[in-house]
Structures are given as structure tokens and as C-alpha cells.
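Feature request, filed as a ticket because there's no other form

It would be nice if the structure record came with a short human-readable summary line next to the C-alpha cells. Right now we just get the raw output. Example of a typical job, pasted below so the devs can see what we mean:
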Amino acid sequence: MRSNRDVVEVSGFSDPQYLVLASLAAGPKHGHAMLDDIEHMTGTRLGPGTLYGAIGRLEGQGLIERLPEEERRKPYKLTDAGVSAFAAKTATLERIVAAAAPRALAR
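Raw output as currently delivered:
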């Protein structure tokens, strides 16, 4: 895993905000549960700074919102805007993969 202030390369994929949206698309989670879920999806664990930086940006954009605390845990969920943003980004990634896959197989 390579990291700088805003970008983390996770198994060749550099978009922590998308990974948080993907994790929350399965339902509300607190930070540690998101870290585990993202690791399960990608095979690489985000650092806490990367995760909470992405959460802060997504919350600031209105794409996720914090739910009431559960003991000491702070769960988050997608907003309606977050669901739409996740669907749009996923559709874009699917188009990229559809175009790129034959090129990768041709080499």
C-alpha cells in the first residue's frame, strides 16, 4: 500500500472515498467495520487516517451521515445523494472495465 495525503493505492485502485461508499452500500457501519469490509473487498487495509479523511470529505459533501453513537462507536450510512453518487461512479467504473478488459487480455 502506497500513501500520501489524499491518495492511497489499494491493490491498484486509488479511491478511498469510493471504497467507503461501497462499504456503506451494504448497510451502516462504524469505522472499524468499514476497515474490515474494505480489506475483505480489496485484500488491503486502509490506514485510519485515510479512512477518516475519506469519511470527513464524504460527510462534508453530504454523501454520508453519522448515525447516533452505539456505545463508543460512530456508525455512518449513505444519504440518498450518496446512493446516487455510488451508483453513478460504479456505472462509470463498469464502462471502464468493459472497455479495458479486452485490451488487458490482448497483451
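Something like this underneath would help us a lot:
The longest helix spans residues 80-106.
The domain at 2-106 is CATH 1.10.10.10 (Arc Repressor Mutant, subunit A).
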